[in-house]
Amino acid sequence: MRPGGVFIFTALLAVAYAKTLIGIPTFDFDVTSTAQFSLSQVTRILVDSRFQSTVDLNGKTLIPPTLFAFAETFASDLVELGLQVPVQVASSAQPGSIFLTISSDDRLYLDAAGRNTSEGYTLTVGTESVIISGASPLGTWWGTRTLIQQGKLGGLKLPIGSGSDAPGWGTRGVMLDAGRHYYPPEFLIEICAYLSFFKQNTFHVHLSDNLFNNVDIYSRERSLDLYAAFRLNSDDSAVAGLVRPYRFNESYTRETFDDIQSSCAARGVTIIPEIEAPGHALVIVQWKPKLGLADLSLLNISHPETIPTMKAIWTTFLPWFHSKTVHIGADEYDSLLANDYILFVNTLSSFIGSSSGKDIRIWGTNEPSNTSTVSRNITIQHWEFFEDNPFDLIKQNYSVLNSDDGFYIVGKFSGSYPQQLNVTRIFEGNPAGGAWAPNIFDTNNATNNPPRDDPGVVGHIAAQWNDYGPNATVVTEAYYSWRDGLPALADKQWGGVLTRAQYDTIFDTLHSIIPGQNLDRAIVSKTDVILRYDFTTASRGTIVDSSGNGYDGTCVACSVSNGVLSLSSPNSRLTTPLSSKGRNYTLSFSINPSSHAPIGASILSGPESSLVLGNGTVQNLALISANQAYVLNYTLPRDAWTDVALIGRGNATFLRAGGRPEMQFLAVLGINGDSFEWQPIAVEAPLAQIGGNGFVGGISNLQLLGSA
Ligand SMILES: *[C@@H]1O[C@H](CO)[C@@H](O)[C@H](O)[C@H]1NC(C)=O
Ligand SMILES: *[C@@H]1O[C@H](CO)[C@@H](O)[C@H](O)[C@H]1NC(C)=O
Ligand SMILES: *[C@@H]1O[C@H](CO)[C@@H](O)[C@H](O)[C@H]1NC(C)=O
Ligand SMILES: *[C@@H]1O[C@H](CO)[C@@H](O)[C@H](O)[C@H]1NC(C)=O
Ligand SMILES: *[C@@H]1O[C@H](CO)[C@@H](O)[C@H](O)[C@H]1NC(C)=O
Ligand SMILES: *[C@@H]1O[C@H](CO)[C@@H](O)[C@H](O)[C@H]1NC(C)=O
Ligand SMILES: *[C@@H]1O[C@H](CO)[C@@H](O)[C@H](O)[C@H]1NC(C)=O
Ligand SMILES: *[C@@H]1O[C@H](CO)[C@@H](O)[C@H](O)[C@H]1NC(C)=O
Ligand SMILES: *[C@@H]1O[C@H](CO)[C@@H](O)[C@H](O)[C@H]1NC(C)=O
Ligand SMILES: *[C@@H]1O[C@H](CO)[C@@H](O)[C@H](O)[C@H]1NC(C)=O
Ligand SMILES: *[C@@H]1O[C@H](CO)[C@@H](O)[C@H](O)[C@H]1NC(C)=O
Ligand SMILES: *[C@@H]1O[C@H](CO)[C@@H](O)[C@H](O)[C@H]1NC(C)=O
């Protein structure tokens, strides 16, 4: 059945009516029957045999999945709806199937400027089967997101009819500052899964940066020692020393970066890598100090080795990148050196273009010159009106990507920016009235905004920065900054018409089924009691979980009697089938640490955190996440029992012990070398193992609740 045929059929039926289906984003649909299609009828996914190996060559990625590959990911995602169905190849839809195909009708898939987009799709729901037909496999993939969302919201029932859909803008997503904070590859991949469920297609990863180089108070030595990182680790001699060996564990090898890019591409999300220079380039100057200006975070572009050094870096890493566009940074440079800046940008543009065929993107930066201009084929990523006027740039024929700081986030604390997306601004941010959209650069002054259909607006990227470095936040706090607002923004980036009230109604339901991620670090549980070890019996090393969830543990070199787990040697441990629990939680237990347990022994540990008796030099109880210790002014008594509860409540973490008032774990943020800020820190509960890293002593009554 062809989509065109459906429309004729629709017009003849009295029940036909157009409806905006509520989803994230919304979806316009012509309902043609009062009957419904139940997804429980689905027995298989069928991939059109003509297109099973087709890929989208017009998208942002150079590694586009085939239609068949997208179908397999879709099949695994349907498990979220309780459906387990195989993927097969066929020439047409059959009863009980979801048929995935490619449409040739370009008229249906136009962006806000009226241009063809390969991301459009048509969803046709019949009485016996569903057909998703995309302008490309990526379009079909977005259609599968609509199906999953509508299936969930409709209790597995879909209305019968058909609808066509296409994004208004081609670049939709976020940027994360991975330069001033390391993020494990799995986390980046989970963020891609989050984006993808709401049809966002771009994850811009900022791969190098440094803490603010406060030249007013730092000596040259201190600047050369300031936190600065470059996250791509190549063994090519051209970049030997750029990543210091002590940071190999906080950088991505080519294999790892390939895995991030292909895992994200598998869900329709393209990684746009950014290597930042000539500003925010302290890591390059720490590597080659002679290339710095007086402010060592800025490269001296007129030094004869600077541009060759940047070319060597790009020559090394261009083959790693599977996107058609790369980002060269070019943010916040000295405006008195405008000609140097423009020379730098244009030189790298032609170098990268001629050596790889890739386009480049730069941050909009105020660099006034009377003699030169940035090439028109470079996309300007606008972020602030004091740097550029985006509408003026568009009038000068630049393509502009909207990253206005109206949606900036700075992790944990900032004098200027919030820590969460402003949801009111998303739904009401058009100064001419109504919701924000990617053509809204200025939420206060409509004169600064081009019309919605202006082809110069490339799309929108919401940026999150880590101005206060690696110890201000734990990894998942970056997710929590976006968690509640980003899907709303995704609706607007696509061109949806969701209202705030509708969003608030469906958010939790859709959030609960986002495939490919568990960023909440949630644990499936029958009741609020997730885990309970009474330590009454152990049979052959198995410690029974009495919560009813069956999370039995395994005891190694330990023993259990009378409700006590005895860990008598430094490698005695209890391992659980769990790893971490995110907010909210209460992890309580009684503990009797032996005076033989060394300072620094860990009581509990997991992939994201550990709770330790001390930090190696001081016997203060501490939580550790990514090797950063968050220390309490409290020491557990030795050779005595104490009741302890570790509590994750919202964005803060607490400890209750020995009947005292709750104590809070705090992050100590260094603010530009001239002050400190004490802020809450939200650390996941460590659950993988009890003991095992030196701890000697007893534990009893261990219980994990999903509330705090
Ligand atoms: C879309 O692409 C088709 C060819 O695939 C072309 O015929 C049509 O004119 C294009 N439409 C627009 C608006 O670019
Ligand atoms: C930049 O490099 C040029 C060429 O080597 C040199 O003359 C100039 O002094 C350098 N600028 C600074 C601020 O070091
Ligand atoms: C952009 O245009 C300039 C000329 O203005 C050219 O040198 C450069 O190669 C072009 N870059 C790309 C990526 O096409
Ligand atoms: C550009 O020209 C204006 C007016 O002649 C002058 O004031 C300004 O200093 C010049 N800027 C640069 C960067 O040369
Ligand atoms: C933490 O939560 C509190 C209360 O909900 C809120 O006021 C504060 O802004 C949050 N802080 C961050 C960094 O998210
Ligand atoms: C959120 O955005 C709205 C609209 O732009 C603005 O009025 C409000 O002050 C913002 N709220 C915060 C907390 O910044
Ligand atoms: C609005 O923007 C226009 C164009 O940039 C500017 O001329 C005008 O002064 C602005 N209005 C206000 C109230 O800021
Ligand atoms: C342990 O904590 C103390 C107090 O916070 C601190 O002074 C010391 O440097 C820390 N030692 C280690 C090894 O982290
Ligand atoms: C990597 O190793 C360094 C040095 O041992 C340590 O400071 C850092 O916290 C480690 N990072 C991670 C993510 O484990
Ligand atoms: C730690 O607590 C003790 C009392 O228990 C108090 O005397 C001391 O000043 C506290 N230290 C800090 C750094 O708060
Ligand atoms: C966690 O606790 C905070 C503070 O009590 C509350 O605002 C929040 O809604 C809770 N979150 C969940 C997921 O229950
Ligand atoms: C966190 O890092 C800053 C540097 O940005 C440093 O000044 C501060 O002491 C660190 N905090 C802790 C607890 O190590």
Automatic annotation (TrEMBL):
Residues annotated as signal peptide: 1-18
GO molecular function terms attached to this record: beta-N-acetylhexosaminidase activity
Family matches, as InterPro entries: Beta_hexosaminidase_sua/sub, ConA-like_dom_sf, GH, GH20_Enzymes, Glyco_hydro_20_cat, Hex-like_dom2, HEX_bac_N
A Gene Ontology BP annotation from the UniProt entry: carbohydrate metabolic process
Domain Glycoside hydrolase family 20 catalytic: 172-494
Domain Beta-hexosaminidase bacterial type N-terminal: 70-149
Assigned keywords, A-Z: Glycosidase, Hydrolase, Signal
Similarity field: Belongs to the glycosyl hydrolase 20 family.
Protein's UniProt name: beta-N-acetylhexosaminidase
Organism lineage: Eukaryota, Fungi, Dikarya, Basidiomycota, Agaricomycotina
